[in-house]
């Protein structure tokens, strides 16, 4: 495969098409506008449908319909737009429907600013809509990884019959890097969806897609089965990258673009005689607890530093994973400001614990 230089948003869109997306519904908002623009230009030539909906609310409900009909369906937006989609996301999850949602985060809260931030972690991982449900959440740290994870997101959404989210900060969407695009999947090779709606001719069993389980004797067993599925996902799907962690005494942890900055900070600290390393969660749900538990049990580890473009959100999951065995401190920038490797180094050397 030849490498080509692509902007993150455009690479994500092309990867989605190659992964089998044939129904895209969206609404413009910076800094993800290149995704719907690319889809508008290329979906039809690939046998797909593009609709710029009248609102984010309309877009997510169109995804609901397309997913119910068995299509690989997708939407994309940025933080305030994802907030508007939350009711629809909850309905899609409750209907056991697969789809992919891309959130290229901007700074907030409120309308905020268009610079990079990671303030949507809670919304993505803890469930931004109503009720008990989960999303598969993938956090790429490069354009190539965003491309690769698009394929994974569609496959895993289908496998578990649930929405999957690609969660990227604004830099992931806007920067350009060389990428290798995998070949397009053969749609005929995808697993059948015997539950999907294809119309009814009056013969055989009628298929119904619904999120309505009004009686407790129906809803509680359903949610209990969902919990069992989430436990299987935690066991089988958690992903993390470890960088120079094998002998580290101080472990930084970050996802997305800040993880790249942390790698540079690790090298600076190592050059100054401080044994630093990095754990980078690739899945935010399921969170890669095992990697943190393993290193928290190592006697030489002094502690963990959660580095985030927020006021501190992922740190809660880091603390849960470490389970009180080692201290966990926080270093972050927010509001669209991005930390430098030198700031991380100064924080560690200044006494993070």
What keywords describe this structure?
14 strands; single chain; 7-stranded mixed β-sheet; globular; 353 residues; 2 domains
Give a description of the structure.
This protein has 353 residues and is α/β, with parallel strands linked by helices. The protein folds into two domains: 3-187 and 223-236, Rossmann fold; 241-349, Rossmann fold (3-Layer(aba) Sandwich), CATH 3.40.50.920. The protein has helices at 8-18, 34-42, 56-68, 79-84, 86-94, 121-127, 143-160, 170-174, 216-236, 257-271, 289-296, 314-322, 341-349, and strands spanning 3-7, 23-26, 49-52, 73-77, 99-105, 136-138, 163-169, 176-180, 240-243, 250-253, 276-281, 283-285, 303-308, 328-332. Strands 3-2-4-5-7-6-12 form a seven-stranded mixed beta sheet, sandwiched between helices. A five-stranded mixed beta sheet has the order 9-11-10-13-14, with helices on both faces. The chain has a two-stranded antiparallel sheet with strand order 1-8. α1 (8-18) packs parallel to α7 (143-160). The longest helix has 21 residues, at 216-236. The radius of gyration is 21 Å and the shape is globular. The mean pLDDT is 97.
């Amino acid at each position: 495969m030849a490498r080509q230089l692509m902007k993150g948003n455009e690479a994500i869109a092309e990867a989605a098409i190659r992964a089998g997306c044939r129904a895209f519904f969206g609404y413009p908002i910076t800094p993800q506008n290149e995704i719907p623009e690319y889809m508008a230009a290329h979906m039809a030539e690939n046998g797909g449908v593009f609709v710029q909906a009248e609102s984010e609310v309309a877009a997510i409900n169109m995804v609901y319909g397309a997913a119910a009909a068995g299509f690989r369906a997708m939407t994309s937006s940025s933080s305030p737009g994802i907030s508007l989609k939350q009711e629809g996301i909850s309905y899609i999850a409750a209907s056991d429907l697969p789809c992919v949602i891309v959130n290229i985060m901007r700074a907030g809260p409120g309308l905020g600013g268009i610079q990079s931030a990671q303030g949507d972690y809670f919304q993505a991982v803890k469930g931004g809509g109503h009720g008990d449900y989960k999303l598969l959440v993938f956090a790429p740290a490069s354009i190539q990884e965003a491309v690769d994870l698009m394929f994974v997101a569609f496959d895993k959404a289908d496998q578990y019959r649930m929405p999957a989210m690609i969660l990227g900060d604004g830099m992931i969407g806007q920067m350009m890097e060389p990428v290798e695009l995998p070949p397009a999947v053969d749609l005929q090779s995808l697993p059948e969806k015997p539950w999907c709606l294809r119309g009814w001719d009056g013969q055989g069993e009628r298929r119904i897609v619904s999120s309505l389980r009004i009686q407790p004797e129906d809803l509680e067993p359903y949610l209990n089965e969902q919990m069992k599925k989430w436990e299987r996902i935690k066991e089988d799907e958690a992903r993390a990258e470890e960088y120079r962690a094998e002998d580290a005494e101080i472990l930084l942890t970050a996802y997305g673009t800040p993880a790249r900055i942390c790698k540079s900070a690790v090298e600076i600290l190592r050059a100054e005689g401080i044994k630093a390393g990095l754990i980078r969660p690739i899945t935010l749900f399921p969170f890669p607890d095992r990697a943190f538990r393993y290193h928290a049990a190592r006697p030489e580890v002094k502690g963990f530093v959660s580095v985030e473009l927020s006021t501190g959100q992922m740190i809660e999951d880091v603390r849960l994973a470490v389970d009180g065995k080692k201290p966990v401190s926080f270093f972050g920038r927010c509001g669209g400001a991005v930390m430098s490797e030198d700031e991380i180094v100064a924080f560690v050397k200044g006494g993070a614990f």
